[in-house]
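Figure 3 (text version): structure tokens given as input.
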């Protein structure tokens, strides 16, 4: 799924109108708003995590799209968190009719 599809499906899931310049992949406030709207559970794991530093976003109660989106973040946890939230929202939006 490319970035345009991610934004389109996240918009569909949330009811918010995103664009290339104003979207949750690049804006912390929009990502938080999206996570709250969809009741997503966001859990960052720092450098002491047993596997790799990552952020996990849980999406439960969405039928076959329930589960978890995990993005490793290296040295940019904010970017990874925004990406994981957007990917989770896109999974929900992509499953909608």
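Below: residues designed for each position.
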């Amino acid at each position: 799924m490319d970035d345009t599809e991610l934004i389109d499906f996240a918009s569909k899931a949330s009811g918010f109108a995103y664009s290339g310049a104003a979207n949750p992949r690049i804006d912390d406030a929009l990502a938080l708003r999206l996570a709250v709207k969809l009741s997503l559970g966001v859990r960052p794991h720092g450098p002491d995590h047993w596997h790799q530093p990552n952020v996990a976003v849980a999406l439960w109660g969405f039928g076959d799209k329930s589960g978890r989106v995990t993005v490793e973040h290296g040295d940019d946890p904010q970017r990874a968190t925004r990406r994981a939230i957007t990917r989770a929202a896109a999974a929900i939006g992509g499953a909608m009719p």
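The chain has a mean pLDDT of 83.
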